[in-house]
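B., you asked whether I could sanity-check this one before it goes into the benchmark set. Here's the sequence:
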Amino acid sequence: MKPFLLLATRAEDEAADGEYEAFRAAGGLTTDQLVRIRLESEPMPPIDLDDWSGIIVGGSPYNASDAPDDKSAVQLRVEAELSELLDQVVARDFPFLGACYGVGLLGRHQQGVVDRTWSEPIGPTRVTLTPDGRADPVFGELQDSFDAFVGHKEACRVLPAGAVLLASGTRCPVQAFRIKQNVFATQFHPELTVDGIVTRIRVYRDYGYFRPHEMDALIAEVQQSAVTEPASMIASFVRRYAAESLEVTVR
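And here's what the prediction gave me:
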């Protein structure tokens, strides 16, 4: 099988490694089948889409909609590299899944409106598939309505032209959309388990998602959650797009 490629942007090792393991476990992938590149620590190497079954972009402390003057040099580089990659991905309708940060990247790349209108606090939220979502080969394996973990400062307010809304939420109207047939973005984190979100709460305590003194109460709250359904979407994505290949050099 050709490997899947995870493009990550988290500088904190605990959160970055937890994200990798969460995607790998949800997809039923071995370490050889899910290759990670940490873009925050090195420039993106040349990527030949023919080497991969699909591309996954994880979440990020970055906000795509922030003013350029508010972005670090690293963030600007990362976004430029990902935009060039999305040029190829969208042109070829290549399998792509962007989780959380992916909504900002793909939404802006496709000329949608991404801003802070529909931000959501950290925790579970109710997500409901649209009729198009229920008919989608990847999302259609999910229950019609389910709980998922979120925590984001920006969201897609206006879908790009031609985008297909796949899921909506009680607090954020755009929870997932598709470009063409194979390019997906979710606002919720399909990979996150309770343990995973607790780790991120601790790691990102001082990043403005919540008041630091509220951390223990927030952890206690999310530990009461029962979020299991979203991970099945990652497994569905992997099953649909896993491709056979000749031997590939793992970067």
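One thing to flag: DSSP finds seven helices and eleven strands in the chain. Otherwise nothing jumped out at me.
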